[in-house]
Amino acid sequence: MENQILGIHHITAIAGKAKTNYDFYTRVLGLRFLKKTVNFDDPNTYHFYYGNEEGTPGTILTFFPWEGIQSGRRGTRQVTEIGYSIPGGSLEFWQKRLDDHHVIYNKVAEKFGEQYLTFLDPDGLKFELTVAKQQDSRMPWTTPEISDAHAIRGFHHITITSNKIDKTAAVLTDLLGYRLQERVVNRSRFVTDTISEAAIVDLVEAPGEAAGHVAGGSVHHVAFRVKDEATLMYYRDKIQVAGLNITEKIDRNYFYSLYFREPGGVLFEIATDNPGFMVDELKEELGTHLMLPPQYEEHRLAIENILPKLD
Questions:
Q1: Per-residue pLDDT tens for 46-55?
Q2: Strand arrangement, sheet containing 114-120
Q3: How far apart, in Å, do the first and last CA atoms of the chain sit?
Q4: Using CA atoms, how far apart are residues 144 and 24, in angstroms rounded to an integer?
Q5: Which residues of 294-306 are buried (b: 16+ CB within 10 A; e: fewer)?
Q6: Is residue 111 helix, strand or coil?
Q7: pTM
Q8: Per residue in 227-255, pLDDT tens?
Q9: In whole angstroms, how far apart are CA 105 and each of 85, 94, 95, 118, 280?
Q10: What pLDDT is attached to residue 256?
């Protein structure tokens, strides 16, 4: 069980208005607001983290909300869909909830034998609420309006769209340990057997489609999960040997990371489970304070005056 990718760790996307993003994910989707911090490279911009009660890897969705950013465009060389896992029998609840909150969605459809409901967030980021074939055992965050019977469990899959998928598929299988499970028309489903949830990557081949533009409503990168720093550095060596450029280890406060761009153009990250979100806040207080990296702490007052208010 050593040196394995354990599915998806987190997904990071780009949003527009911070308060709109915060309201949608905490109030409409009912995710826990895990961490309010700033972009390490742009401390005048928030970095939001959402997930389940403890921020378990495989449930963590993060955003850089840049006020006034232009809208992105879905296309090739991108993560084009984020799949969330929901319990069986909850699709009708979510259709009504999305209706009540005037969210754009499509009628229920099916692929690979699983029903799903597609919707767009306020910035146009595309999601699928999927009822998985096997029961998802993860404990969700619940709210007064969204009970355990309906609450989002965490990631089910991501979809990457490419003009040609062969080199991306090789990264998944040869470097990250995924296997091809099934192919239907132009969609190929890859899975890892190291974990039961957040274990799926779909590759869609669209030869004639234009490249997308990453901006508001786009996925910035997807992070794959490893248990610790030793495993992280094992994958750094493996990816370097394969001829791909990869960063040095970066301390992100809540995990350690490496970044590389796969041949299809999508930015991949590998991130550790440790140290987790309770390194600087108690579990019951997660998301209630503005947590700054040490290099920005002396500028706290100025940063707080610039960041948009959420209340």
A1: 999 999 999 9
A2: 109-111, 114-120, 126-131, 78-86, 154-162, 200-205, 187-191, 179-184
A3: 45
A4: 15
A5: eeeeeeeeebeee
A6: strand
A7: 0.97
A8: 999 999 999 999 999 999 999 999 999 99
A9: 16, 10, 8, 5, 38
A10: 98
